[in-house]
Amino acid sequence: MKILVTESIAEDAINYLKDEGFEVEEYLGHKQDEIEEYIKGFDGLIVRSATKVNETLLANSDCLKVVGRAGNGIDNIDVKACTNKGVIAVNTPEANIMAAAELAVAHAFAIFRNICVANEGVHNDDYRRGNWIGNELEGKTAGVIGLGRIGSIVARKLKGIGMTVIAYDPHIPQEKFDKVGVKRCKDLEELLKESDLITLHTPKNKETQNMITKKELYICKRGVRIINAARGGLINEVDLAEALASGQVAGAAIDVFDIEPNYNKEPGTQQYENVLLTAPNCIITPHLGASTMEANHNVGAKVTELVAKALKGELVAAINMPSFSGNMATIKPYISLAEKLGRLYYQAESSAIKKIEVVYRGALASQETGIITLSLLKGILEGMGNEHVTFVNVQEAFEDCGIEVVEAKTTQINKYNNLINVKFYTDDGRQLELDGTIFGQETEVLVSFFGYEMNFQFANTIIAMQNKDVPGVIGKVATILGSHDINIECMHWGRKADKKETAQSFVAVEKPVSQDVIDEIAKVDGVNRISLLEFN
Ligand code: NAD
Ligand code: MLT
Known about the structure:
By secondary structure, this protein is of the alpha/beta class. 33% of the residues lie in helices and 25% in strands. Strands 8-7-6-9-10-11-12 form a 7-stranded parallel sheet, sandwiched between helices. It has a 6-stranded mixed sheet with strand order 14-13-15-16-17-18. It has a 5-stranded parallel sheet with strand order 2-1-3-4-5, with helices on both faces.
């Protein structure tokens, strides 16, 4: 499978993908329209903040399955469009938060102590230190807008240097303010009025864009200082430049712009303009928040791990997946088991499904099982030949098929600790059932198959046969397999209580089996029906 990387990530992360068997192409420094054209043929895409994963790019892609955002903010990813296309979107929200928080704190020192302007002066033979008298942070009030991952770290660090920290965040509970140990502002105005330093740490969205304009800047104390290391456009750049010029804002530190420059071009090769570039008392860094060796390593390692897992069909915490708050370690084996139960159906049966009822029995009934059901549906759709189904679009794809899905739970169970029972109601009026369970930590076992009691551990390749329960049939089948150098891994026979003359045989084999071999076995006297079940 092929992965396109359009913005630089750590080299060891690229090597990891190659070691995992992926073909990786680094396509760096290209324009958006070039990337939109180039995306064809790639199964995975890794971007940072510059590449826009928009409708055009997604429409042009022909086999894209996962987009990895190497970083935190997802304002450059059209998550809805990804979901519509079944593309899994992952990011690395935790991997660079310390780097971003530390930059904001560094900016606070820099603008309180005129560090950058003094440095520039000295390098230009100006040593008049009296021009660069600053203020101390100790004892001042810092207002944190957005008390999320980064805002909380910044708040703790600013408290550590002796500032009084207040915060405004309308979307989090009081407990979070108490945990971080900061005063909660009832509204933005309260924060603006009380702060000597304001630092923004919200995402960029319709609500937060232009949240600080001229009006807000003039509610602040005269001489306030402002930091934006979150996203450009949260502060209106023209209004900030004017407030800096008037002295209403004594200093600003800006790491991010509303429209960002190209961060790869040689000096003098782009005509980037921004009103803040010439604003007085404004420190500007080129979106450096996440630029530490540690963050680069963390982000690269995490995004490549997620992309690799998603491409291998494993469940990953994706931005566009239903959120899951249960115990993942407990249900993970059942997610895999459910997908196998789903894939089994159309490999063994051809009748169209009208309705599915899935019942979680035993201890499993107390777990959050929605994701297990999605996995079952994904398996069924894969069995129907739908290659583009992922956890993000499976629900919708299933609804499109018009198949009704009912989920039920009961703690009642006879033989096992947990059981997934799936009833398939077919178009021709039958009800076919599959039961699966987990033995030990992760051994996936089929315990009933369309009415036959089984005890069969899932394997990559299984030959499932209905045969006359008479001596000699299995011997003939084994001889055929042996003549094709196919080793048998495991065999099991199941019977129905009321139909003793027929057995359901499951033969797990060590390597793939061709259709010719299946056809040969089908001709054996006593073999009534045969299916090849593949699960790798
Ligand atoms: P987060 O989601 O953990 O926290 C954001 C917080 O903002 C949340 O608590 C949310 O409730 C709050 N919020 C949302 N709307 C708000 C509003 N209108 N007013 C006040 N609060 C509001 O995000 P995070 O990981 O802390 O990231 C914060 C920002 O930093 C993001 O914009 C992210 O893209 C950016 N970031 C920048 C860099 C960089 O290189 N400069 C690096 C990493 C992250
Ligand atoms: C982020 O959102 O992770 C940061 O803005 C860093 C980046 O993507 O360059």
